[in-house]
Design a protein that fits this description.
With about 325 residues, the protein is α/β, with parallel strands linked by helices. It is built from 11 helices and 11 strands.
């Protein structure tokens, strides 16, 4: 294996640039060539390859986003699109590919290597932390730090005005961000996609908070929760408790941006080195992750299809500490 490519795909996550840097410098260290693919899988189709060396990735370790850019490619979902991508890879003499992304990216990577045999290694890059086979994904720690900082600021206003705030965080299918930050910020309650909460239970928790003379009440809401739209939840609470001044803050894409945390920089560096060495060792169709602080490899299909369970003990801890 003399030449490898690296791309980022799907939603950006803090730590992606650190992972690119690690992939490039590891390849250079082993005296191999490396190219960056601009705009993910769409770049494979459009033949957007850029030769990289160790100086190409200087000063990006601390940057959020991805300097290789990202895109969601409808063309790559088709067999014809993937065939054109493979043709461009062979024309560029690529012997292997490192894909940094989440569920959708790994689905495309798995199909690509299965259909055409080009070796592919995945690095988990998503703030949702929802890939099986790794304790943490790139960007998750950074995103939870951002949420924690934002909620701390919101609490200042909540305390000053004795208000109830509903803070919506990302988590369309999973509540990892919401649950972890609920504990970190001392939230009154948390609403998760994985928990069958009822409106009655939420109203009871809010009443408990005011009965205990809490001067600030924060409820963390994962966007994919089963109770519905965050604004609608707040309105239903106000209908039941007209005396409560309830506000809604949606953090949105703030959670994706900004410099990666120290944890994510180290994780990205570790996985970037592991991914390149795995290609050189003949591995393919696997994701490299970290379990119990050790690098592990999980088949891409298994990483995508297996559900990652929440640590529901955190929910119990959050309830205990919110009195």
């Amino acid at each position: 294996m003399k030449k490898i490519g690296v791309l980022t795909s799907g939603g950006d996550a803090p730590g992606m640039n650190a992972a690119i840097r690690a992939v490039v410098r590891t390849a250079v260290y082993y005296e191999r060539e490396v190219v960056g693919v601009i705009r993910g899988f769409q770049g494979l189709i459009d033949n957007e390859f850029e030769p990289l060396d160790s100086r190409s990735v200087k000063n990006i370790l601390n940057l959020g986003g991805t300097f290789l850019k990202s895109a969601r490619s409808d063309a790559f979902r088709t067999k014809e699109g993937r065939e054109l991508a493979y043709h461009n890879c062979k024309k560029a003499d690529l012997d292997g590919l490192v894909v940094i992304g989440g569920n959708g990216s790994f689905t495309g990577a798995h199909l690509f290597t299965k259909e055409f045999g080009l070796p592919v290694i995945g690095i988990p890059g998503t703030i949702d932390n929802d890939l099986y086979g790794t304790d943490f994904t790139l960007g998750y720690d950074s995103a939870t730090n951002v949420v924690t900082e934002c909620v701390d600021k919101i609490r200042d206003t909540a305390s000053s005005h004795n208000r109830l705030f509903f803070v919506e965080v990302m988590g369309r299918d999973t509540g990892f961000i919401a649950l972890r930050t609920a504990v970190a910020t001392g939230a009154l309650d948390v609403i998760l996609p994985e928990a069958n909460r009822t409106m009655e239970e939420l109203l009871s928790e809010i009443a408990r908070g005011f009965a205990n003379r809490k001067t600030s009440n924060i409820v963390l809401v994962a966007e994919g929760n089963r109770l519905g739209n965050t604004f609608e939840i707040a309105e239903r609470v106000k209908d039941h408790y007209p005396f409560i001044d309830a506000k809604v803050t949606i953090l949105g894409h703030l959670q994706r941006g900004g410099s990666p945390s120290c944890f994510d920089r180290v994780l990205a560096s570790k996985l970037g080195v592991a991914a390149v060495e795995a290609l050189f060792d003949g591995k393919t169709d696997v994701m490299c992750g970290v379990v119990n602080n050790e690098v592990t490899f999980t088949f891409l299909q298994k990483a995508i299809q297996n559900q990652v369970p929440l640590n529901m003990d955190l929910l119990r801890i959050s309830k205990i500490l919110s009195i």
